[in-house]
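Figure-free illustration: sequence to structure, shown twice.
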Amino acid sequence: MFVARCIGVSLAVFVLVYAALSFAVSRGWRFLLTAWKPRLATSSADLLFSLRMAPLAISVGVTLLFTLPSFLWLEPRSTDEAIGAAPLVLGAACLLLFTLGMVRAGAAQFRTSRAMAEWLEGGSVMEAGAKVPVVRTRNAPGLTVAGVRSPKVFVSEATMAALTPAELRTAVRHELSHVRRYDNLKKLLFRFAVFPGMAELQRQWSETTEIAADDAAVSNRREALDLAAALIKVSRLGPMESSPTLAIGLLHSSTALSARIERLFGWGTVQAPQARSSWWYSLPAGAGAVILVALTYNAALLRMHALTEWLVR
């Protein structure tokens, strides 16, 4: 009974924190993005991804660092106290949420693996020994990077024929930047972290990460014009074909295509500013948070246990 109550209470707290934070993010992400005003597209994409995944990360942290220890430390093991209706209902909702997320993520991985197998049929690797293989194939839609664990860049024969070597090199660099930023893995995490009302945030992330990939692919005006020409030529090959979830095409989103092309044509003669690693800026805040938690940890466990006792009743 003790183990059952521990699991029920932990799942209940998790789903309550996750639902509250997810609702707040789904309603407030535009305000936070406007208030923060990141200067670089990579920073905007990182901020949107962090906001999308924050409810899941914080919920896991609260459950593992506070809920579970408070129950194990303060709850008597010999009590015959019943689990209670609220933890049962909330725990069942949490398990349903986990199950739905795993099904969605598994289905996305399955569809992507099946599509990649079809694209590899009759394909040929253009550069042997490359860390991320670039495969020439008949079946892939335009220029696409697919996969999470072993990503590959697929180039259709029609795209190969339409682009000049310089345009193709720049377009491939665009796709490789998605690999370096683990964008398909992020999309897999989006599939797992289920919550309604997040579609617009994810669409904004998708468009912003395309601009970030454009910035990573070019370093001067000549390359910017090559990438813009590649976008125009690939768009003229025909309507965009649908890709599996864990794949990102050069024309991943048609809504931002004109803005991307206009931005590339306006590229200055001076090299565009590149994203700098800014994780160390958060070190003081992170260190302060760790010290605060350490100083108030016992009191926090007592308050969490009181909260879970109220929940059980």
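We now fold a second protein in the same way, so the two outputs can be compared directly.
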Amino acid sequence: MIFLIVVGVLMAGYGTAYVASDDVRYLTRAGMEETRILQSRRPIADLARDPATKPELRSQLQLVLDTRDYAAKLGLAAKQTYTTYADVGRDTLLLNLSAAPKDCICAYTWKYPIVGRIPYKGFFDVRAGQREADRLAARGYDIYLRPAAAFSTLGWFNDPLLSTALTPDSVELAALVFHEIAHNSLYVKSATPFNESFAQLVAYRAAEHFFLARGDSVAAQRAANRWHDEIVLGEYYDSLVGRLNQLYDSHPAPEALDSGRWVAAAWARAQLEGPVGSQLKTYRIGRLAERPVNNAQLVGVRIYRTRLDLFDRWYDANGQDVGKSVTALRDLVGDTEGDSALGRLARAVGDSLRASSDSEGEK
């Protein structure tokens, strides 16, 4: 996940601006949290060697170091990402908010310096996040407020590994490291679905190679299976969005809109409990099938699953070599912005973007 912290130097008029501007208060809180995290960092190598460190934590930290080393061998821009560790002192790092109109799979976006428009906003302050969610809900938007365990500053700071990101699942922990380092290696401005989907490719394909190199074929297969499931779910969400787009394009009256969304939710439930669920190798459907249609939620989950098949075909075309795939993709997209990057990728692998799976519009 990308969450670029913008810490401005608030000079003359700071007090007035702080009281009057939500943006200034937001950036101030973000800056304070980033500063606190950076000040609490400890070198992972030291903690991994320290006998006073709990054995489970030592094992996880050593895996992070090994994953970093492997990422560097692949040619990824590991920089100083995850060379330090910070205990944030709570189980939730921040909340991410997504929003979308009830009659359109269109992401509400927030504009930031450097990174451009992003279809979510992260809140360290839970109450501020809930206030923003309530404000958008009152305007008629679907909203999706969810916890996030990690973020990337794209190499602007030496991102520490946060305690909220630790997991006993070795595959997911390694995938997290590869995912965040992938953002250092390639970033396209105002193209969040492209960036996150690309990072997912790197996460699981690199994890597969990493565990194979360690002689752990079981973990390698789990990484491959998780990537398979991500592609299956991406195609499922594409189909659901296609059905909803047909409904929304008809500009239904409010009653017809509600009933149409209910029908779409019933179809989605049947798919998850039937043909889609039967293809999954690592995910358990559980309560996922009970979800009503929520356009903001769809925007949120699809950010990480936008045409994953294109990225996988690119990986195959580059000899199933993660490093080569990243370098070639960086050369391919060049200085493009927004949806242009995904278009270039599609053309490069001989595909055309389906209307239902094209990047969502913005509001």
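Summary for the second example: Confidence is low (pLDDT under 50) at residues 2-20, 355-363.
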